[in-house]
Design goal:
two-stranded parallel sheet; 1% strand
Amino acid sequence: MLQNYRVQRYSTRTQLSVMLFNSPQFIFLFLPVTLFVFFQIGRRGYFQLAILWLVAASLFFYSWWNPVYLGLLIFSLLFNYAVGSALSQRFTLPINQKLLLTLGIAVNIGLIAYYKYANFFVDTVNDLSGTAFNLKTIILPLGISFFTFQQVAYLVDAYRGETKEYNFLNYCLFVTFFPQLIAGPIVHHKEVLPQFTQRSIYQFNQEDMAVGITIFSMGLFKKVMFADSVAVYATPVFNAATQGLPITFFEAWVGALAYSLQLYFDFSGYSDMAVGAARMFGIKLPVNFNSPYKAVNISDFWRRWHITLSNFLRDYLYIPLGGNRKGELQRNTNLMITMLLGGLWHGAGWNFVFWGGLHGFGLVVNHQWRSFRKSLGHDLKKSHWWSRGLSCFVTFIFVVVAWVFFRAESMAPAIAILKAMSGANSISLPSSLSTKLAFLQSWGVQFDGLMLNLKASSTEVILWIGSLLLITWFTPNTQQWLSQYKPVLNQPSVGTSSGWGDRLWQKLQWHPTSLTSFLISLVTFFTLLKVLSVTHSEFLYFDF
């Protein structure tokens, strides 16, 4: 029943109209109109009116999906601003501050619990007790996890005395700003709210516009040309596993790798588009994605993947639990609790919990391994190129295996795919590879062809997946391409050892020249042609 709930939630979401960043109505209407009016108001010095326009546009953007849930977002805004104001003592309430904070967090978590986990909880009770309780379909409101966590952090900081005097209109924009409203990044008030007081953002800036359009176009290209194209290899494999159909060794690995790349470029593309759209308004968002498949261990992975969520879990869950201050055993326990809840944050299903547990286990093993090496006197800051390469490969395989649980509809199909990946059902490769890899037959490898329709030959599949892997491992990311223009807040320093510092990459760094404008325009043109030919292509993180 948990499986059916998840499918129902996704299918219900996709039947509704969402103004995606890669939709024609967003690219050709909403974004340019919002920009034009914002700068027309700003150039006349009506700064608060410009903020009001952005808030109104953002609320319209959100309500395009389903106007009914606009009330939920507005309630969240009013409630959290009022509680935050009381906690920061801008006005007093006849209630203990700690109790008020607890109440504020409870209301926020209660909303997520109802909309995101009510059916999951009821189905779990039914499975364990044999009862037949039933709730009506509960549609998950867009972005509820993101704007709720954002405001929970605000309440905690207000209780700690770390918030400043923010007016209500600026607070509304902090929460609702459309580039980050429905799929992150989870922005911190200290990072974004001060930018709204800078007069420079209300005046049209050619550099900000050029940088923003470039980043947005790069993200759109990743989403449409990479993520969507490789998804056609992943979907048949996971659908077959859900239906209980047999899967070969080759198909299982194709499905797992294809989904890993789909999710990578989908999230990377979305992150770029969010950063780019915000930069067009002169606003910088925090970095949220930094070449995570270049990570050399699982801790490094979480410093690169969904960075703002990792920071939130660290600052508002892991550290309050005690962090690493109470010994290794407590640290390991805190890591497991944090990652289990992080897995549950991504979705209401035991496969998500197990995925979080796998990453928690990986973090524990990594910390123990580092402690062991320190005890041997190893210098952890020094490493050879081959050891970094091996560490990167091992980390990547671990992440790919964990993604199988993340993508599968339930535990059963995930286990079926992993069994096929391990060769438990025999190792079978496509017959088209038999001439080139005939020597493997002596090792028990069979060449039986494909059982599923992957919509391409085995050679095409291998070349496409291999090409995308080379791109993820050996090319600079967006922050590095545009590093001279500081595209994001908290510009990361990790991940620059992949060759970016050599002369070749220095020459290829982005500059606003006629040549780069022509190339970006050409790439964007062909990407938009693809956009116009696709009826629906949803970002994966919109469902979390």
